[in-house]
Design brief:
The structure is a homodimer of 364-residue chains. Chain A has 2 domains: 184 residues, Rossmann fold, CATH 3.40.50.720; 160 residues, N-(1-d-carboxylethyl)-l-norvaline Dehydrogenase, domain 2. Helices cover 48% and strands 14% of the residues of chain A.
């Protein structure tokens, strides 16, 4: 058993405290400076207001200003801040990091940095002080894991990933329970690219439901109530193909894309949530600027991720590193989100990155 | 343009007549002996009763007893019978086949034959007369294609597949429209395995919704209404892994599994339909024998496919050709469907066929 401190009391960081506390670890939940109301509720009533559930009896909640009380003896730090908070987290953690610490990132994604794509564990590392950044290990979690379901102890299957294979069996032992199933892999790149892209792709898949509503409104209901799942499925498959293309480009492994971290997590992400809702609004014909107002105050990770990665993608296309034809879904989505472009995919440009598929014939 | 005769007036065969008739082909729709009521309705009112939609103005419907009138000048035969009808179709077509004909199979799946798995195009071929079976070409269609959506001319993206690459561009030209997007591939094995397995896997994914209902009934609603999408997603990902395992075993290509024919079609198939409904009933705790009565008279393709392929799989395990550990989803599903076994997956046995994943640690 170990002393494990979770920084960030959002739904995912907090959900992870259930299996690790069930395993008898000493679990400390430290809110960020934005989580004071959550921590207050955890301290006063033992209720997490966003998970809408009692926190585990053995978890100790701390305000951010109490972080110095939580960190002593900590062996593993679980980083549960959102993707915008990684730079902040590097500063927040720096004073407490010691050689041998493991930082386990729940925070997921990629950023454009100096016209290159960079996975968030590397962003975190590069923002830590030079003296410590190479003295600690970095790990991350991939796979379909809706926080509320894990907190309910419903079966959840994930992959722990680190460039250092030696730390993985220990982490598996500390975290895995009868309901939290943990595989391990060293493909950190593959997992981080998958988790960064699942939200944009799920948003795109969600467009189909909105397009259907729009069509119904404009033309009346279809005589046989035909849906647009074929449309959504083509985006689902193209999304996986674009993910595989970027994973390959960055040196990750295709198996990651086609199993739990890619296809599995994308499946879960398309079954609802904020990205799907944004997709629906855009599919209905709202320009992005109006859709954002409709969802005022909500973080749409699919939007953030698209905006974060497309500058580097564009640079790589401009410099000839990648093919302009490989990513039509992401390009179209980027135009929808940044230029109020209408929802209009050219399906016949899809799957150009899959060598085994011959493209559609040119129609006359 | 070509003369194209569709044999089998079910929803999928009939749906295909829309793009090919839109393209100006001469399209003849021949019902089987079981389709007389459908053809009667098509002749009398131009309405397909199961598609609940007008058939295309230019499609000519024929009763099965009129097949001799439909076949002259036919260049391409689209086989739209269900998977149980392939042996029958071989007999029905035999008198009319001429060298150079293309048989395009909408009928999908695999059978166990002499303890080996055999894809349906090969089953059809082997049941045709020796004189003609090697004088014609075989093709098939893979990918997410709900019939009612194609008939509504909603965007649909598929892969045409044949061992003979020379016939594919011509087929693409005859079938593709502004809403029917057609890639091509020579991986006939990969596509057929994907379409055979998507129904069993979708049935398994559907179990999660039933399990949730059962849990809610037994324990009351979860305090935060947690769903079981993580559960479903693990089955989705494991289903793809088992598909990839069998595709690889039979000499197909993994790219097929991870794009339109595999992941894309599985996505569509999990979004509703009879397999999902059967999964829900079983997940709710009904033994298979009771669930079948609940859905009396409905063909559940996921059940048929599981029962059709598992004898060969078991034989291959017994003879050491494949690993007993590679297919835990299909094995558990087979026990549920044939022995009234309860729904109880051992998640920690999943992903054993993926070399990059290290398995869960043994729990104490």
């Amino acid at each position: 058993m170990a002393v494990i401190t979770v920084l960030g009391a959002g739904v995912m960081g907090t959900a992870l405290t259930y299996p690790i506390a069930d395993n008898g670890n000493d679990v400390r939940l430290v809110g960020t400076h934005l989580d004071d109301d959550i921590i207050q509720s955890c301290k006063d009533q033992r209720i997490h207001p966003r998970l809408k559930r009692r926190i585990h009896d053995d978890v100790k909640p701390f305000f951010y200003h109490e972080i110095a009380d939580a960190m002593p003896e900590t062996e593993i730090i679980v980083l549960g801040v959102n993707s915008r908070g990684v730079h902040w987290a590097a500063e927040a953690l720096a004073p407490y990091l010691r050689p041998g610490h493991i930082v386990m990132m729940v925070t997921k994604g990629m950023e454009s940095e100096n016209d290159e794509l960079k996975i968030l564990p590397d962003v975190l590392r590069d923002h830590l002080p030079v003296g410590i950044r190479d003295q600690i290990d970095y790990a991350a979690i991939g796979g379909p894991s809706i926080a509320g379901e894990l907190a309910a102890r419903n079966h959840t299957s994930v992959v722990f990933v680190s460039r250092n294979p030696n730390i993985l069996p220990g982490l598996q032992k500390l975290f895995a329970t009868s309901y939290y199933h943990v595989w391990s892999s060293t493909d950190l790149i593959g997992v981080e690219v998958c988790v960064a892209l699942k939200n944009p792709i799920a948003l795109a898949v969600g467009l189909a439901a909105g397009l259907l509503e729009r069509q119904t409104k404009e033309k009346g209901p279809d005589v046989a109530n035909a849906h647009m799942y074929n449309y959504a499925a083509a985006l689902f498959a193209q999304g996986l193909a674009e993910t595989a293309y970027i994973v390959n480009l960055m040196g990750g492994r295709p198996e990651t894309v086609f199993s739990l971290p890619g296809a599995g997590d994308l499946y879960v992400t398309t079954q609802g949530g904020r990205n799907s809702r944004m997709g629906r609004l855009l599919g209905m014909g709202l320009p992005y600027s109006d859709a954002v107002e409709e969802m005022y105050g909500e973080t749409i990770e699919g939007v953030d991720a698209t905006v974060a990665i497309m500058p580097a993608i564009q640079h790589m296309i401009d410099s000839g590193k990648i093919s302009a034809d490989a990513l039509p879904l992401l390009h179209t989505l980027h135009r929808i989100l940044t230029r109020n472009a209408p929802v209009d995919f050219d399906f016949d440009t899809f799957f150009a990155s899959l060598s085994m598929f011959n493209p559609p014939v040119t129609r006359t």
